[in-house]
Amino acid sequence: MLRESHILLFSIFVAGLCSIVYELLIATTGSYFLGDSITQFSLTIGIYMAFMGVGSYLSRFIADESLLQKFIGFELLLALLGGLCVPFLYLAYAVDVSVQITSVVLTAVIGTLIGLEIPLLSRLMEKHYTLKANLSNVLSIDYFGALIATLVFPFILLPWLGIFKTSLTFGLINLSIALSLLWYFSSQFSESPKRLLKRAFMLVLCVLVGMMIFSQKLNKAWNGHVYEDTVVHSEQSKYQQVVMTRHKNDVRLYLNGGLQFSSIDEYRYHEVLVHPLMRRVEKAEHVLLLGGGDGLAVRELLKYSQLKSITVVDLDPAIAELARENHYLTALNDKAFDDPRVMVHHQDGMVFLSNTQMRFDAVFIDLPDPKTISLARLYSKQFYLMAKKILKKDGVLITQATSPFFAKSAFWSIHNTLQASGFDTLPLKVNVPSFGEWGFVMACKSECSIKQDYELSNTRFYSSLTEPMLTLFTPDLAETGQLISTLDKPNVLYYYLDGWRYWN
């Protein structure tokens, strides 16, 4: 009897562990494909909790007769659907079925099955404990399993296994509940249901193990279907999915499915990011680059011999490692990270600004677009005030500011937020064929302007001849009173999502 109660308690722990991981997997994968992390996590949590309530309610209609066999059947179904939740979402994205609808359906079904678990396990444990002890044991162990899941998911599972294999792994872990119950209680089942459960167990096991064995090939096939060009590098880092493709002489980098650069025209973007500012602060010696782990902006900065240090702050070590070791990328960035003046810190940009004692002549912000709440804070007034604090007296800042055409309101919100932070500003734009019109905002502690009396010999696009194009904003791109963005009210996020919703 003691062993029986231990096996049931083990089942409760695994149930709590898997339930949270499935929730995190669905929300994270939805965020990868759809971009709006607030919406995805809110929808997933809300629907999950609601349908757990539905499952708990439905448990009252499950008769005590053959309760254990029915519970094992539910666990087999949950292990199959939970283990395949990420492959299902990948498939939906690949065949152009609504990822949002697929995510909602999966969340509802898995939530219902998880809602069944605790009431049914509580009923199975009634003969071992009093009602008070039973509820205490079941809920405390279930919650502890959930705690373990939230700790191992971001720090171990995602960086080590990636999101695809994590899904399959937890399907197999969930399957251990059915295995332990089948093994221990086998003698209590009649022959027919026992045979049926064993066959169902083997079927689910074969599906999950088979998917795990062929996961690399499946991912390769998925990448080949989703990305038009040949995939030459693919990995799931601790923070994001990293994919590099190549077609003839066009090398492209994608993070979570979003294009970061094309080797055909990236020089236009990076030259405008770097040179207008550097021509204004000709005596700059110490500069800070937030983002830019691919080394392409560093390549442009290294054209200035007076620079004594270039401090790069990029959160994901996987990007910098790729920039150092991938021969396609080192050919593009001219092995920029091998220069002794370049120092790389793998840290959140806001955390770095709040902790550093260093002061810089210039700050370059080459961060991803503000498409999630965590990224939107890096375009807030508080963030720009922190950047202003580490700038020297005549220091200058420039940030990429998304597209003034596709996301006009987001662009001008960034511009207005910098002005509200006490900077004089100069909006810039450039046509990058891979992206369309792209915007930057230069921000100065004193009057912002660009020196016109110069000519650069080592750039492919940027020159005094292109200068008028950078500062010319036609009437359809004009500012129309956009609100500033703060930590409390991340308006840039809402502007961005609204602007890109049509084009996506």
TrEMBL record:
Binding site for S-methyl-5'-thioadenosine: Q240, D314, D348, G349
GO biological process, one term: spermidine biosynthetic process
EC number, UniProt record: 2.5.1.16
Location(s) in or outside the cell: Cell membrane
Broad class of where this protein is predominantly found: membrane
Active site feature: D366
Transmembrane segments: 7-26, 38-59, 71-93, 99-120, 141-161, 167-184, 196-214
Ligand binding (spermidine): H270, D294
UniProt catalytic activity: S-adenosyl 3-(methylsulfanyl)propylamine + putrescine = S-methyl-5'-thioadenosine + spermidine + H(+)
Pfam families reported for this sequence: Spermine_synth
Topology of the protein relative to the lipid bilayer: Multi-pass membrane protein
HAMAP family linked: Spermidine_synth
Family statement drawn from the similarity comment of this UniProt entry: Belongs to the spermidine/spermine synthase family.
Subunit details: Homodimer or homotetramer.
Entry function: Catalyzes the irreversible transfer of a propylamine group from the amino donor S-adenosylmethioninamine (decarboxy-AdoMet) to putrescine (1,4-diaminobutane) to yield spermidine.
Name of the protein in its database record: Polyamine aminopropyltransferase
Source organism of the structure: Pseudoalteromonas citrea
Gene giving rise to this polypeptide: speE
